[in-house]
Amino acid sequence: MTASTSSPPPRVVFITGGASGIGAQCARLFASEGYHVVIADINAALGEALAKEINGAGSTQAVFASCNVTSLQSLEEAVALGVSSFGRLDVAINCAGITGGKLQRIVDLPESEFDKVHSIDTRGMFLSLKAELKVMLTQSPTSSSPRASRGIIINVASRAGLEGVPTFGAYCTAKHGSVGLTKVAALEHAEDRIRINAIAPGLIRTPGHTSDPTHRDLDARLAAAVPMKRWADPEECADAILFLASDASSFMTGAVLEVDGGMAAKSR
Ligand SMILES: NC(=O)c1ccc[n+]([C@@H]2O[C@H](COP(=O)([O-])OP(=O)(O)OC[C@H]3O[C@@H](n4cnc5c(N)ncnc54)[C@H](O)[C@@H]3O)[C@@H](O)[C@H]2O)c1
């Protein structure tokens, strides 16, 4: 009898905030690594264009799922679209996020601004975890190896989730929440063979985090505080996320991987 030569089916990655910035770069990188991609985002124009780009580029497929992370129903529908399109959910990247508006101290920060940032960056991540875990818990590990998992989740936190940043009261506390969610979820599911880690990016040049031209001096001042003296490209975050999604990180869960040009080394 001849051994079967069929290769395993492509793995499937689900990305909230997958239409722009770090999430979009993850979509491109994971597609190039042979994953089918689900781009879940509120921005349909960007999300659909990216899915088209990926579908035109190679052998793996992408779908766009219209998704607002402030709604559990919307997230469940987006996850369901991914599962019906590609059969399972191997990796979820929770990247949807906003920074908030004007820089101001807590004493001046409007309640509505605080609530808006928390509804996406923390509550949205909580709801994303619920929708993703529900599916992953029904799946079998990918192989009998002790390193194999039922599912892998990477939460995109921030350097601001690990230290106080004056005038970033809403974002900073929301990202501390995302670090807490990562640790709790990792401990709750360590024995289920679902690994949940976070990355804490520093300054990453994306549409969401690039100041307008009138703030170029602020960009330069921020970069001066980074030991490596520069902003990073989104590719540098996507590479770290791919590592956390791979078997190369098979004994990591509940970790926060800092991708910040050395800023963590200054604050510990
Ligand atoms: N760029 C940085 O310097 C930096 C640093 C630390 C952390 N982060 C985090 O990285 C993540 C991605 O940020 P980015 O810089 O790539 O920004 P970005 O604005 O380029 O991308 C964010 C994406 O999230 C989507 N989104 C926003 N609200 C949503 C919602 N309610 N439902 C679904 N999708 C929604 C947007 O449409 C967009 O596609 C965010 O969580 C951000 O806080 C970024």
UniProtKB/TrEMBL annotation:
Q: Kindly state which keywords UniProt assigns to this record, in alphabetical order.
A: NADP, Oxidoreductase
Instruction: Give the molecular function GO annotations.
Output: oxidoreductase activity
Q: Record keywords: Transferase included?
A: no
Give yes or no: UniProt keyword S-adenosyl-L-methionine. no
Q: Which PROSITE patterns match?
A: ADH_SHORT
What domain of life does the native source organism fall in?
Eukaryota
Family assignment from sequence similarity: Belongs to the short-chain dehydrogenases/reductases (SDR) family.
What is the name listed in the Swiss-Prot or TrEMBL entry for this protein?
A: Short-chain dehydrogenase/reductase SDR
Q: Which organism is it from?
A: Pseudomicrostroma glucosiphilum
